[in-house]
Amino acid sequence: MVKKGERPLPLPPLFFVVSISASLLLAAGLVGLFAPQVSSLLADRPIAFACIGAGGVLELWAMVQLSGVARKTSR
């Protein structure tokens, strides 16, 4: 919650792009693992695990961006 007199946290647009991309990759990987009949491309286990790994890395990158902005704003 933003206190009176404080400015809200200015998030860069790249944060949203990276976070949404990570969510989509994680979802694609989970679909490939648990519902392979939905998409034959994602049914291959290495591809599903690669999607999950890439989504995890992108989500970590988004969290690093978020913590960097929060640290910069708190000064």
Please write out the topology.
Elements: H1 13-34, H2 45-74
Helix pairs in contact: 1-2
Keywords:
75 residues, mainly alpha, 2 helices, 0% strand, elongated
Structural class: mainly alpha
Q: Terminal Cα separation, in Å?
A: 18 Å
The count of domains is: 1
**What percentage of amino acids are in beta strands?**
under 5%
Number of helices: 2
- State Rg: 17 Å
Whole-number average pLDDT?
90
Helix content, binned percent: 55-70%
What string, H for helix and E for strand, traces the elements in order? HH
Number of beta strands: 0
Outline, from the CA principal axes? elongated
Which sheet architecture does the biggest sheet show?
none
Task: Give unreliable regions as ranges.
Answer: none
Structure, explained:
With 75 residues, the protein is an all-alpha fold. The chain has one domain. It contains two helices and no strands. Helix 1 runs antiparallel to helix 2. The longest helix has 30 residues. The model has no long low-confidence stretch (mean pLDDT 90).
What would a concise description of this structure say?
This protein is mainly alpha-helical.
